[in-house]
Every structure is written in C-alpha cells, then in structure tokens.
Amino acid sequence: MKYIRLTKEQLDEMHQEFINFLATQSITAEEWESIKRDKPDVAEQELDVFSDLIWEGVLSKVEYLEHFSPQHMFLFKVDSLKISMISVEVENESIDITTAQGYKWLQENFMKDEVNLYSSSKLLSDDRNNDIFVLIRQGANITQGDLYKWFEKFVEVD
C-alpha cells in the first residue's frame, strides 16, 4: 500500500465508487461477501488497492495546501515541477492563530513587526503525489488557495 487506507466513514461515502471498482474486476456483490468471509486477506488487499486509487486521484488534483499551528501558518502552492511555500510567523506567543480571536488578530496586524512573512520553494521529487501526501500526513489540508493567493501579494515567491 502506497498511502493509507480510507477510513470506514470515507469508504461508506464512496460505496458506489467501490462497487464500480469491484465491477471492473468482475467481482459481484455475492462474490465480495464470499471474499470477505472466506479470504479476509484478499478483501484487505482490495480495500488497499481501492484506497490507493482514490488517493492518487485526489492528490493528482491538489494545487494548494495549508497547515496551521498556534504561531505559524504554512501555505503551499503545488505545480507540476515545484512546491512554493509562504510562511506566516507570529512572534507573540500569547497569540494563537488557530483560534478565531487569534486569527482575527492576525488579519488586523499582519503587517506589523510581530508578524514575519517568508517564502521559499523547492523542486518536487519524481513522486509529486507522495510529496503532497507527506504534507497531509504532517497536518496540511487541501484548500482552494485563497490564503496563499492573498498573501502572495505581500511576499516574493520564486
């Protein structure tokens, strides 16, 4: 397995897609029940293959990611060759930008000396999707990039 298995909730939401996946392998509902009962290791492998297929599809479409911690915001833009990052750092440890109050403070004070903006970029590896997956495993969330697009007006991004 390349990524991680989808959760039970995710698999439940993708029930029809999973049925279609089984159908592409000519596995009927009755056969699937038999596999789950008689060959649980094979059923586990099918779930892993399906999860990887879903992850590949999702990761291939990712353009923006965000990761927040109490004093940092990491905003990522991913293209075909590189990943660019804008980092927002709040020096005042009493401000927690993961809270509504702290985020409001950041919105009102992002140009003050207590807030540092940085940018960097790096080339993606040969496995773009895995590079993105690593960021997700570290806590990043896939977004539409609104914050990245807004902050890039204030920093020079390679």
Give an account of the 3D structure:
It is a single chain. The protein has 158 residues and is an alpha+beta fold. It has two domains: 8-59; 64-151, no CATH class. A five-stranded antiparallel sheet has the order 4-3-2-1-5. The chain has helices at 8-13, 15-24, 29-38, 40-59, 100-109, 128-137, 146-151; strands at residues 64-69, 72-78, 82-90, 115-123, 141-143. The chain starts with 7 loop residues before the first helix and ends in a 7-residue tail after the last helix.
Shape: elongated
Q: First CA to last CA: what distance?
A: 34 Å
Mean pLDDT: 93
The strand count comes to 5
Query: How much strand?
Result: 15-25%
Cross-sheet strand order for the largest sheet: 4-3-2-1-5
The residue ranges in which pLDDT falls below 50 over 5 or more consecutive positions are: none
Classify the helix fraction into a percent range.
40-55%
Main beta sheet: strand number and arrangement? 5 strands, antiparallel
What is the number of independent domains? 2
List the helices and strands and how they pair.
Elements: H1 8-13, H2 15-24, H3 29-38, H4 40-59, E1 64-69, E2 72-78, E3 82-90, H5 100-109, E4 115-123, H6 128-137, E5 141-143, H7 146-151
Antiparallel strand pairs: 1-2, 1-5, 2-3, 3-4
Short description:
The protein contains seven helices and five strands; from the N terminus they run H-H-H-H-E-E-E-H-E-H-E-H.
Structural key phrases:
158 residues; DUF6495; alpha+beta
